[in-house]
């Protein structure tokens, strides 16, 4: 999974879009491909930005690239575009676009949009580096990964107990914490649900 480019543009409904801030990561391209890729990315970003309606989000694929675009609309007329490979998940991509637009609007006044060369927004390069791993951008993905890791750890713990030669049946029989009724319930349930494993 790879992020190649991230851009913030001013996209008035009438007229061409103007790049206000952008950053590229061309490290995955060979030396000879970098110039071509570096020219294509702003072109592709501007093209999809100008064809995305205010308030709309869309993902557009072209060869090995996917452009995720968010036209926030409103009085600021800002659009953010992130170019990724086709494996990069959609939800984190749009989460990044939201974050970069929020931060850009907080740090750059609209009065500067007319003079893009005077705009300083180095945070955009940080976003590309930080969010190469989509789990960093998406808290839901991060929580899911943590849950998956917990399941793996629990499974390993149960396996390690069983590998020492102890069987759950023997532990139940020897347990002083379980009443006779609980032990009987366990045995009956195990017989009736022999297809299921009780942990």
TrEMBL record:
Signal peptide: none annotated. It is a lipid-anchor. Residues 7-128 form the Longin domain. One of its GO terms (cellular component) is Golgi apparatus. Keywords: Cell membrane, Coiled coil, Lipoprotein, Membrane, Methylation, Palmitate, Prenylation. It is found in: Cell membrane. Residues 139-199 form the V-SNARE coiled-coil homology domain. The keyword Nucleotidyltransferase does not apply. CDD domains: Longin, R-SNARE_YKT6. One of its GO terms (molecular function) is SNAP receptor activity. It comes from the Eukaryota. Its main location: membrane. PROSITE patterns: LONGIN, V_SNARE. InterPro entries: Longin-like_dom_sf, Longin_dom, R-SNARE_YKT6, Synaptobrevin-like, V_SNARE_CC. It holds the Pfam family Synaptobrevin. GO terms for biological process: endoplasmic reticulum to Golgi vesicle-mediated transport. Belongs to the synaptobrevin family. This is Synaptobrevin homolog YKT6.
């Amino acid at each position: 999974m790879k992020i190649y480019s991230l851009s913030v543009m001013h996209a008035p409904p009438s007229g061409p879009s103007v790049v206000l801030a952008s950053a590229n990561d061309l490290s995955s391209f060979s030396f000879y491909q970098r110039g071509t890729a570096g020219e294509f990315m702003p072109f592709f970003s501007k093209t999809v930005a100008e064809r995305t309606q205010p308030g709309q989000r869309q993902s557009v694929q072209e060869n090995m690239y996917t452009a995720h675009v968010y036209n926030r609309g409103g009085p600021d007329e800002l659009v953010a575009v992130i170019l990724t490979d086709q494996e990069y998940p959609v939800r984190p991509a749009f989460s990044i676009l939201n974050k970069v637009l929020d931060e850009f609007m907080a740090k750059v006044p609209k009065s500067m949009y007319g003079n893009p060369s005077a705009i300083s927004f180095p945070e955009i390069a940080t976003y590309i580096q930080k969010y190469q791993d989509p789990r960093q951008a998406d808290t839901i993905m991060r929580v899911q990964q943590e849950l998956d890791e917990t399941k793996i750890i629990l499974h390993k713990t149960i396996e390690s107990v069983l590998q020492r030669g102890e069987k759950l049946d023997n532990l139940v029989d020897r347990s002083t914490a379980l009443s006779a009724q609980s032990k009987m319930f366990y045995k009956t349930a195990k017989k009736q649900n022999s297809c299921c494993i009780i942990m």
